[in-house]
Write a structure and sequence with these properties.
single chain, 172 residues, alpha+beta, Pnp Oxidase, Chain A, 8-stranded antiparallel sheet, 7 helices, 26% helix
């Protein structure tokens, strides 16, 4: 290629689209994406020092549940319940197709649920482990209730929607 030739830029990079998905369609896509994933990155913060932890999760509606072993993340949540959660489609990591880039950035409130608290067994059951295991487990369940979910899906541009879509909890 000579110095005056410009490489072909894929249309997906230059396509300007701002159209938002209808709210019910966005909710359906977010819930479908969440239910098809099991690993996320939970980010917590203490005294302006962030910490990100890969952790398994399950969902019930828009709420995420994680089985938290004792560690810094639990201590951080006790001091600051504001968290961020990232979930992405692992196929995009090794794909050359820009349309495979899809992920969620979730901002919300975390709540720690101890073994003796209401809701613990309901959350524990989401992980499909024998209930007898709960009696011997020394961690806590982490419930994250999203305030805001940002969905980035480059494939949406091919449907003439903006790649970035935002869902906000209505009862804020």
């Amino acid at each position: 290629m000579s110095e005056h030739e410009q490489p072909d830029v894929p249309e997906i990079f230059t396509k300007q689209v701002v159209r938002q998905l209808p709210p019910e369609e966005l909710e359906t896509r977010i819930l479908s994406f969440l239910s098809s994933r099991r690993l996320c990155v939970l980010s917590t913060c203490r005294e302006n020092v962030p910490r990100s932890t890969p952790i398994l999760f399950r969902t019930k509606g828009f709420s995420l549940y994680m089985a938290g072993e004792p560690g810094q993340k639990l201590g951080n949540i006790k001091l600051n319940p504001r968290v961020s959660v990232a979930v992405f489609d692992p196929k995009s990591e090794f794909s050359e197709d820009i349309l495979d880039i899809t992920g969620l950035q979730i901002t919300g409130q975390a709540r720690l649920i101890g073994k003796d608290e209401s809701g613990f067994m309901d959350a524990f059951r989401l992980f499909n482990r024998p209930e007898a295991w709960a009696a011997h487990w020394f961690g806590m369940m982490i419930e994250v209730v999203p305030d805001r979910i940002e969905m980035l899906s480059m494939a949406l541009k091919s449907e003439n929607y903006a790649a970035r879509q935002i869902w906000t909890r209505l009862d804020l």
